[in-house]
Structures are given as structure tokens and as C-alpha cells.
Amino acid sequence: MPAPDLLTDELILTGRITTASNATFLGSIGDTAVVYKPIAGEKPLWDFPDGFLAHREVAAYLVSEVLGWNIVPRTWLRDGPLGKGMVQLWKEPDPDQNAVNLVAAGDVPETGWKQVLEGQDEYGRTVALVHEDSPALRRMAVFDAVVNNADRKGNHVLAMTDGHRHGVDHGLTFHRDYKLRTVLWGWLGDKLTAEERNGIDRVIEGLHGGLSRSLADLLSAEEIASLATRCARLRLAGRFPAPSGEMSAVPWPLF
Hints:
By secondary structure, this protein is an alpha+beta fold. It folds into two domains: 189 residues, no CATH class; 31 residues, no CATH class. Helix content is 25%, strand content 21%. The chain has five helices and ten strands; from the N terminus they run βββαβββββαββααα. The strands form three sheets. It has a five-stranded antiparallel β-sheet with strand order 1-2-3-5-4, covered by helices on one side. A three-stranded antiparallel β-sheet has the order 6-8-7, with no helix packed on it. Helix 3 packs antiparallel against helix 5. It starts with 10 loop residues before the first strand and ends in an 18-residue tail after the last helix.
């Protein structure tokens, strides 16, 4: 049986993800499972332009590809049952793994994990937000700083069985203003590795050529210029960035 044409073959809806803030559907193109987010189902936001969240998701995928770390599953724009929207390959995470978690404050592992903050749960118990200390998750944190991700929640990190980590839900990215809100603050101020610096260099190089041309159909010229500025500053600093301004440094809810 030939592989489906993901751009033109019929997209059939098979379910809806009701916990998503915007209209999000499960679907299939032939035997390929996908996620479909129609532009018509995007809710207006006060600080992001209306009708362009799908474009930002595709732009995030393009940057992920240039970084070379396979963070964002393949993502593209196409028509669907509810109009044009973003389509992304479905990735099934390992239900027995959690790359980001809430644990009792006294139960934070001594090694292999980073604590981000402490707070109280709905029962008044003190809990800690933690994430694993892994190269895969470090790369995702670098990616988030590059694309200015304003919504890296814990359940936007997909822990795969083989140890790989995918990131999803990148509609709130590429804002011209600093908007980094993430649960992955565990390396704040740490030096970037050579691999991480090389990834940023690939994006900088791409912004002088093919990547810039591809992003021009998805982002404004000002947003692309801000992306270039962020990369240059991150590369010059050589360290993971810190929160800035008066806005919350973490998204809400956390998961």
C-alpha cells in the first residue's frame, strides 16, 4: 500500500482533544495519525495576532529542523474538514515516563533532576516542580529560548520510550517582545554546551538564507528580525537566559 500524501490526501477526524485551549482534533491521513488545529478554531489573544497560531507552529518546526535536534514533530499547513490549519504527526508518549513532574518538596531526587520552584497544592501541601536533567531536555530549553516560547507547560513535553523528548504546542512563539514562560528553568545561568552553541549557529546561518525565506510566509519581518537578535544575544552570552520583566516566568497552569 503506498504511503499517503500528507498534503493532499483526505484528512479524517477521529476525535477531539477537549483539554486544549483552542480547537484541536485527532485525525488520520491514510494510516498516519495526526493532530489537526484549524485556524478557524483559534481563540483571540490579547498579546498575539489573531489567526496566526498555526503559522507559528509551522515556523517552530522549521527552526527545530535547522537546529537538528528533532524536537518538534513534522508540522505543516493544509486544508482540512474545518478549513486551513496546522497538521502535525502524532507522537505517542511513554505513559510510564514523566520528564516534568510535581513531587512532595522533601522527595526531590538528589541526582538527575532539577528543581524549578516550590509551591502549595490544592490541599495546602508543599510541592516542588521538577524536570529531568538530560541533554534532550536541555536542547528543548535552548529551542524555547530561540523561538521565545511563551507556553512550555509540563504536558507539552512528550517523553518517548527511547529517551527522546518531543515538544508540542508552539502557537505562542516568535513574539517580538521577550515572552519566555517555561517549566524548564533548571539550567538558568548554566553555560551552553558546544552542541547547543552549534545549533544556535545553524539557525543564525539559516536566517541568512533558506530558513529566512521559509519563515517569511509564516512570520512578520519584525518577528524574524527579533528571532535573529535573540539568537545573536544567546550565542554571545553563551548561557541559558533568565526571566525578565514583571510577567510570570512560568505558564499557567503548569501542566
